[in-house]
Design a protein that fits this description.
alpha/beta, NAD(P)-bd_dom_sf, 292 residues, 6 strands, globular, Rossmann fold, 2 domains
Length: 292
């Protein structure tokens, strides 16, 4: 096991480091459409796990995720599960399906989240974001607990991971009464339900872990802002600009310094590092920008 993970460590490198722990494990990840953290999680786990159950409410996107993982790891054991977390009936149906699987379930990763948007309620009369990001996963997890516990051995406690966010701290926390009877006035901005969802996920993982008394382990995790291709492209570009800019400044300074180098010519008198002039990296401009 590596203890040298850094800011730059990739998910694939972490999976490589835990290859022996992942071997033989059956893992279910919610929200695995291409481009999201759930997909990336499923992708890197698929290299070593015995079975990765990928989930989504859109059959086409689910198939695309499976196809993409299989292209990279043809031997991977991927199983698709239709799961719409915004509907309690759909959650019950999906959990019933999982409970028919012959394999035990070692790990459940509650990753899925709805897009941030205007206040709306589900057919179950729950706020949409909270229903998808917390109430659906809460029900799903509870329905799968017997299956998770069946994976328990003397040396292994099944795991439940709930994705949270730093955004949990931007809201007033969770109002249990409001969860069951949502009103738009409680959410003055469109982000309010997301903040509440992420707070609820932290409390859920914490309480579950406490009540399970070691029979299973529950965690909430803030993944931070991931680096992706948009980010990297932007970063590389800003790095290049920083280098050019630094050299221009150095050259200009050198033009009037005691070395007497003419402005605009190459110089060896750099005192400024690239870091000191590097523009602050920006987070990619997508819907992720609204999270964090
Ligand atoms: N990305 C970040 O910067 C960041 C920062 C902090 C925390 N997080 C947390 O990390 C997790 C993943 O974030 P992400 O940025 O990867 O999100 P994302 O790209 O928006 O992915 C969300 C996933 O949830 C699925 N989903 C949406 N509605 C669903 C529903 N009704 N039923 C089932 N699945 C549904 C989506 O499917 P479709 O794509 O098919 O709609 C998608 O696969 C979230 O819990 C988020 O709160 C992310």
């Amino acid at each position: 096991m590596s203890s040298n993970f850094t800011f730059h460590t990739t998910a694939a490198e972490v999976a490589d480091a835990f290859a022996s722990e992942l071997s033989g494990k059956n893992v279910l990840v919610t929200g695995t459409s291409l481009g999201g953290l759930g997909f990336e999680t499923a992708r890197v786990l698929a290299k070593y796990a015995n079975l990765v159950i990928i989930t989504g409410y859109n059959a086409e996107r689910l198939a695309l995720s499976e196809e993409t993982i299989k292209k990279e790891f043809p031997y991977a054991n991927i199983r698709k599960l239709t799961l719409d977390l915004s509907s309690l009936a759909a959650v019950r149906a999906a959990a019933a399906q999982v409970n028919t699987y012959p394999e035990p379930l070692h790990v459940l990763i509650n990753n899925a989240v709805a897009d941030i948007g205007p206040f709306k309620v589900t057919p179950d009369n729950l706020e949409f974001q909270i229903a998808t990001g917390f109430i659906g996963p809460f029900l799903f997890t509870n329905l799968l607990i017997p299956k998770l516990l069946a994976a328990r051995t003397e040396t292994y406690a099944p795991r439940i991971v709930c994705l949270s966010s730093i955004a949990h701290g931007f809201g007033p926390g969770v109002d249990p009464a409001a969860l069951g009877a949502p009103i738009s006035e409680r959410y003055p901005t469109i982000f309010g339900p997301y903040y509440e969802t992420k707070s609820a996920m932290i409390l859920f993982a914490s309480e579950l872990s406490k009540r399970a008394e070691g029979k299973l382990l529950a965690f909430s995790v803030n993944p931070g802002c991931p680096y992706d291709f948009f980010f990297i492209a932007e970063f590389v570009e800003s790095e290049l600009l920083a280098v050019i800019y630094t050299n221009l400044l150095d050259d200009a300074a050198a033009g009037s310094d005691h070395h007497g180098s003419p402005a605009g010519s190459p110089t060896t008198t750099r005192t400024r590092t690239r870091e000191s002039t590097r523009p602050a990296p920006r987070v990619r401009v997508t819907r992720h920008f609204t999270r964090g």
